[in-house]
Specification:
alpha+beta, three-stranded mixed beta sheet, homodimer, DNA-binding, three-stranded antiparallel beta sheet, Arc Repressor Mutant, subunit A
DNA sequence: TTTTGTGCAAACTATTTGCAAACCG
DNA sequence: CGGTTTGCAAATAGTTTGCACAAAA
């Protein structure tokens, strides 16, 4: 566990935000300017493989990282990309599972909306 | 609606497969060897924007295209990447929606498993 | 003919990787 | 010391885009 790994894990695990690698890189560089982008990617990948954090693939956008590795759905703003965690709807999964022949090894549920901030702004941007 | 667009749409809409752009490109080239890769991407994007087909972003893999534009969950094999459609569990989505403050504009639900073919092969590949 | 779409190649973005030097145990 | 990890830069994969020419309306 190197200094850079600790820094990167600290940034992801400290806040409920779901940041992109680039955002994490910027935050980390504020504390360790020599940090390389490649190191951020390498460590994020490693932390994901170890099950300490979770990677969220986002459509048409860079991946985001979630400090909560357990499976749960996400609420994604279509305009600004911000992501919120949701509680797992056990019943939904159980009932889907019941209809399937084999075991489910994992799932990814994203619900899209326009977040209050974006709706309020009235802007029509991305 | 050009010949190439018709060809591309035909390939996507004809079969229940969820093919990648590259697979569609190969199939299309079999019938029109001069077809450019860029044209495939351009037309797929256009068809998605028009709501005729649906794009499925796949984690760590090229996107796949679904002839069925309406929202429904997908069952994805973690080993070979093959995708199957599932029926929408309306009631359960409604119950999630009920817990949320604003309207859901769309969703993406992927369930992961190992498909029978991959399980049977016993191989430990990707 | 005026617009729209194509083919080609170059550009782009997010991410990964090879390598020599620096670090950790 | 001896394997691991870093910083850097170059490579990659998938996809997008600019442009001159061809096809459609």
């Amino acid at each position: 566990m190197t200094r850079q790994r600790e820094l990167i894990y600290g940034i992801v695990s400290a806040a409920p935000e779901h940041r992109t690698a680039e955002e994490i890189y910027d935050l980390a560089r504020a504390q360790m300017p020599s940090l390389a982008r490649g190191t951020v990617y390498r460590n994020l990948g490693l932390l994901v493989r170890e099950g300490l954090i979770r990677k969220l693939e986002m459509p048409e956008a860079p991946a985001r990282y979630d400090r909560e590795p357990g499976p749960h759905p996400h609420l994604v703003c279509q305009r600004c990309g911000r992501v919120e965690d949701l509680a797992t709807p056990e019943a939904l999964l159980a009932s889907i599972q019941a209809d399937l022949p084999g075991p489910i090894t994992g799932y990814d549920l994203k619900l899209y909306h326009i977040c209050p901030a974006c709706r309020g702004s009235g802007k029509d941007g991305v």
